Amino acid sequence: MIISALPQLQSLLSSLGSSKLGSLLPLEVLVLKKLSPETFLLQIKNKNFEVSTPKPLVVGEQYLASVRHELKNNIINLQHFHKIPIKVAQTVYSLDELLAHLKRPSKEAITQLHSQLLSHLSNSTNKEEFSFYTQLLLGLSQGIISLPFKYHNGFGLLQYKKKKKQEKQSQDEVQFYAHLKHLGPLDGTIRLIDDEIRIIVNVLFEETLEVLQKFQEEFSFNKTLTIQLKAEIKPLFALNEQVLDISI
Fold first, then answer.
1. 33/35 Cα distance (integer angstroms)
2. Could you give the dihedral angle defined by the CA atoms of residues 152, 156, 158 and 159, in that order, rounded to the nearest 10 degrees?
3. How confident is the model at residue 43 (pLDDT cuts 50, 70, 90)?
4. pLDDT digits (tens, 9 = 90+) for 179-216
5. What are the domain boundaries of the chain?
6. What is the pLDDT of residues 122-140, one digit of tens each?
7. Where are the beta strands (DSSP E) in the chain?
8. Which of 176, 237, 186, 177 has the alpha carbon at shortest distance from 208?
């Protein structure tokens, strides 16, 4: 199964994030206040900074950004804001549970996931929880599997969608999006071509690209793995942004 390549990819990325990349940018940025249309008060490592950016940031939200501090002029430069797609409290699965899901046959894994989400939904204790599980189920109904998880010293989100084979198409394909605390957003494709798995991983941050390329040889499939920069990366299905009327 083509999805069998995902556990190794996710496990290695998580391992890199938790054990080797603790000091690597990007950094978490909290938006405290909007001072003008393009000026914001941000919190970075418990310190507040005024930063100008044309990106429409949302007050109260957390982002990852590539941050460079010019000590001489005390200027903060930020690039590539990416909204953190989930909250720590929404990490439903452990890394082991995530990998166990990916190792199961596809239909069995999705059936079990659907059952688990319905159980979580029925046991929700507040509106926010109910809304979140409803969104996960809504994505699942569209063929997008969303797996929010936690791992040692971090948390993340993995989403994937299997692309249906078209007539005369000789390859199978899985599209994926991942977000890891230490690496930021990634997306790409896993293709099965002539019994060979080929993986393309796109990353938003140059720092992430440098580290993954440095450790690329640690991947058993490194000869068929391409890692490259991408100007914008979005989740396959945006969580925490759907407007649901769940009032009774």
1. 6
2. 160
3. very high
4. 987 788 999 998 877 777 888 999 998 888 887 887 77
5. 2-22+87-229, 27-83
6. 998 888 889 999 999 999 9
7. 27-36, 39-44, 47-52, 62-70, 75-83, 93-94, 145-151, 154-163, 171-180, 184-193, 196-203, 225-229
8. 186
